[in-house]
Structures are given as C-alpha cells and as structure tokens.
TrEMBL record:
It comes from the Bacteria. The keyword Amino-acid biosynthesis does not apply. Residues 202-360 form the Peptidase M20 dimerisation domain. It holds the Pfam family Peptidase_M20. InterPro entries: Cyt/Met_Dipeptidase (IPR051458), Peptidase_M20 (IPR002933), Peptidase_M20_dimer (IPR011650). Keywords: Hydrolase, Metal-binding, Protease. This is Acetylornithine deacetylase/succinyl-diaminopimelate desuccinylase-like protein.
C-alpha cells in the first residue's frame, strides 16, 4: 500500500466521529420525495449536499428540474479514468410511524444484541449513509493530499424512491457534462457483514396502478347485494389470475427474453452458501412462495415476478359498513430480468385486465417506472480493480452478486450516456430499508468510506507505476 493511501485511511479512522456527525445532519432533513409536503425538505437536502461538496473542493451546485433538484459536482483532477458517482438523497415515507421506536429523523446510534453499532433513522442506509461514504472518502483524500487520485464527477438525485420523471431528461440535457468513463452507483449491499460485494445483476421494474369502476355510486349491500357487481371481487379475481398453481405468471409473453442462468454464474452463486431457511426465517416466514421449481436465491435475483403492493376499496375504517363500493384500486409491480421488455409487459398486463373485465365495468391505468433488468459483464477492467480494493479492505474475497431490487438509473447510464454502471454498496440485508427502524451499521459506514478511498487509489494511474 502506498504511504499516501495509508495516511488517508488513518485520517478516515481518526475523523470517523465527525463523518458520523455530518451524516446525521443530512439524515435530519426530511427529504421524502413522494409526498409534495416535503418538497422544501428535498431542496434543503440538495443544498446541504451541494455545500458539502463545495467544502470538499468540488465545483458543485443544485440543479433545478421540473421535480426535485439534482446535485452535480466535479473535481476533475488526478490521473486515471473519469468516474461519475451516483447516489440519491431522497428517502421513503416513514409510515407506519407507530412502529418506529424513536423519531425516524432523529438519528441515533444503537448497540445491537451482537455488540454491533447501528445508525437508526430513515435514510441511514438507503441512501444517505451510502452516498456519504463516497463524499467522506473524497474529503479524506483532499484533507491528506490536497487532491483526489482520479477525476470525479458526482450526480445526486432526489426522485429515486418515487420513480420520478426528471432523471432521464436531465441526463439527456446534460449529456456531455455527465458522461464519464463509467459510473459507480452506490445503492446496493454487501453479501454479509464481513464480505464485500459488487452487484452485476439487478432486476427491472414495471409499476401499474389500476382503478376498476362498477356502479356509478356506492350501494347498500343489502338492497343491491347479489345483483350489483362488486368491483373488489372483480379486482381480486383478476389479480388472482396473474399466477398459476405453479407460481408462474400467466401473462402471455411474460417469459419472453428470460434466459436460464449461465452455468458459471450459477456455480458462483452456489458457492455463496445462501441459507434460504434463515433468509425467510429472519422475517418470520418458512415456506418459499412463487415458482415451485426454483431456488430462493434464483427467485429473487434471476427470476421475474409480479407482486401486489397495495389494494384498497370499500369501507376500511373502524366499525362496519354494509356497502358495495363503486371503485376498487390496486398497485402492482413486476420485477423483470434479462431481456424482458418493460413496454411489452405493461401492454400485456393491460390487455389481460381488459380481457377479464365485465362489460359494465371500466378500468383506468396509471403507469409507474419502467426499467429493464441489468446484467454486467464480470470482467470489466474497472470492476476487477474495484473488487481487488474491496478484498483488501475487508480481508475477504469480494463476491459478485445479484439483487432483487431495481436501480433504474443503472440502465439509463447505459442507454442514455453509453457508460457502464458498477454497483458497489455497503448495505446489509437486515437494514430494514423502506421499513420502520431502518438502520446502517457503523461498520458499513466506516468500512464503506475506507473502501472508496482504496477504490479511488486503485483506479489511479499512479497505482500502476
Ligand atoms: N436501494 C434500493 C434498491 C435495492 C434494494 C438495491 C435492495 C439492492 C438491494 C432503491 O432505493 C429502491 O428501493 N428502488 C426501488 C425502485 C424505484 C423505481 C421505486 C425498488 O427497488 O423498489
Ligand atoms: Zn436506494
């Protein structure tokens, strides 16, 4: 290891309490992107980050969009590939708020049963803790050596969690400024607490909201029950028909473009020793759902699915009301893999719903998201160096994994800016992202900062000399 790098790592260790304090300041800003009531907080988070980047010597600013703003910064110094780092400063809503042990936006450090220290707060892991690992690594390089080892640009988004529409137009409008040799997307996890990972497979996403309308007003279920059509019944029957008895999705053409896992990747995944009983047991389940002939790991990383994310209609308040509602609603998402085409899946879903709809009902659709799955070649030179740096930091071989979640920007970097997105992150499966009491281990934060410091060094041309 070079003297410079070991000085930077020592600086990170001695400054970790300040790094945590800075993360806490960012977490305190309630940047919930999906709720318009928090638009001001989203702007505030963007301004905070632009200031933080300026403080680290970036030429940075808040860039307006029709939705929440972007933050863009550049520090084009050092020698080596130019990288674009991506993270998102927006967070998920906090509900159900009753299940939080303390205020979601008052970060605190909790000591878990196994002695590990955890930062508990909304956004601690997804994605404020993660994006700050990179900024803090840059801060340390600047503090110790006065410059970064390689040219770096940063793009921080505020609409990731709400599938906002601003990102692609912003990329297209700022193509030259944002195009680098490749991107790092820091929004994924490690294999486990000790084992670093790069994610090379990610599922895509198609979301649909549907509203089914039957009678033109709510009806008394005694006066009309049995004769008037109930849109909730129509809805659940349609939703139920989306899966067959073997757990396969029934939409015509749904599996077009879904390939079998290449044997080399299958062998790598088998070697990970994934414990499916523990995976399900940790969340209180014991019986795998979905396709009957697939392993749990394959189901979440390499197979497409369809899930109902929300359903409502009729009277759901306290007490009881005998009503046949006029309308029923559902939010449905499809996770896609391989070469499945998001537009075709959306069209197939709409055709299917219409084909099952009784003639005296109507349906309205509202689209959300629409991104294909991602598969990255494992032998990209930058990926090899990144894995090496991660292996050195954690003292364990960096593994290559898939992920069931979706990060549409990774595909957008490829299709709009023509660059690969390398996905490196330090979240853990039990971080409770999107759930009450979200947490980020201090070991993820501290190790993440140290990891980026090493990755920047490994990519610099000086590293080879
Ligand atoms: N960080 C997650 C994606 C993720 C989750 C990656 C778990 C790896 C492991 C991201 O913020 C997210 O939640 N994305 C949404 C997609 C978006 C379009 C709503 C998702 O996957 O549901
Ligand atoms: Zn995220």
């Amino acid at each position: 290891m070079s003297d410079r790098l070991s000085d930077v790592l020592a600086h990170i260790d001695s400054d970790i309490d300040n790094s945590l304090e800075r993360l806490f300041r960012l977490i305190e800003i309630q940047s919930i992107s999906t709720d318009p009531a928090f638009a001001g907080a989203c702007l505030q988070a963007a301004e905070w980050l632009a200031d933080a980047l300026k403080g680290v010597g970036f030429d940075a600013g808040v860039r307006p969009t029709p939705g929440h703003p972007m933050v863009v910064g550049h520090a084009k110094e050092g020698a080596g590939p130019h990288v674009l780092f991506y993270g998102h400063y927006d967070v998920q809503p906090v509900d159900p708020i009753d299940l939080w042990e303390t205020d979601p936006f008052a970060p605190r450090i909790v000591t878990a049963a196994d002695g590990s220290k955890q930062i508990v707060a909304r956004g601690s892991s997804d994605d404020k803790g993660q994006l700050m690992t990179f900024i803090e690594a840059c801060r340390a390089w600047k503090a110790v050596t006065g410059k970064l080892p390689i040219p770096v640009s940063i793009l921080l988004e505020g609409e990731e969690e709400s599938g906002g529409p601003s990102l692609v137009p912003f990329m297209k409008a700022n193509k030259d400024e944002l195009t680098a040799d490749f991107a790092f997307v820091c929004d994924t996890g490690m294999w486990d607490k000790q084992t670093p990972a790069v994610t090379t497979m990610l599922r895509g996403l198609v979301g649909e909201e549907i509203t089914i309308t039957a009678a033109k007003r709510d009806l008394h279920s005694g006066m009309y029950g049995g004769a008037a059509r109930n849109p909730i019944h129509v809805l659940v029957s349609i939703l139920d028909g989306l899966r067959d008895e073997n757990g396969r999705i029934t939409l015509p053409g749904f599996y077009d473009g879904v390939g079998e896992l290449p044997p080399a990747i299958k062998a790598q995944w088998d070697a990970l020793g994934f414990d499916s009983a523990k995976f399900l047991g940790d969340v209180g389940l014991s019986i795998p759902a979905g396709e009957i002939d697939r392993s749990v790991l394959e189901k979440i990383w390499a197979r497409p699915t369809c899930e109902v994310n929300g359903i409502s209609g009729g009277y759901t308040g306290k007490g009881f009301k005998t009503v046949i509602p006029s309308q029923a609603f559902a939010k449905i998402s499809f996770r896609l893999v391989d070469k499945q085409d998001p537009d075709k899946i959306r069209a197939a879903f709409r055709d299917y719903v219409r084909s099952k709809l009784p003639a005296d009902c109507s349906v309205e659709f509202s689209p959300h998201g629409g991104s294909p799955g991602i598969r990255l070649p494992g032998d990209l030179p930058a990926l090899v160096k990144t894995r090496q740096a991660l292996t050195e930091e954690w003292g364990r071989d960096c593994v290559t994994i898939g992920s069931g979640g979706s990060i549409p920007v990774a595909g957008d970097f490829q299709s709009v800016l023509g660059m690969d997105a390398l996905m490196v992150g330090f979240a853990l499966d039990d971080d409770r992202i999107h759930s009450p009491n979200e947490k980020y281990d201090v070991s993820s934060y501290h190790g993440g900062i140290r990891s980026w410091a090493r990755i920047l060094a490994a990519l610099s041309e000086k590293a080879q000399s």
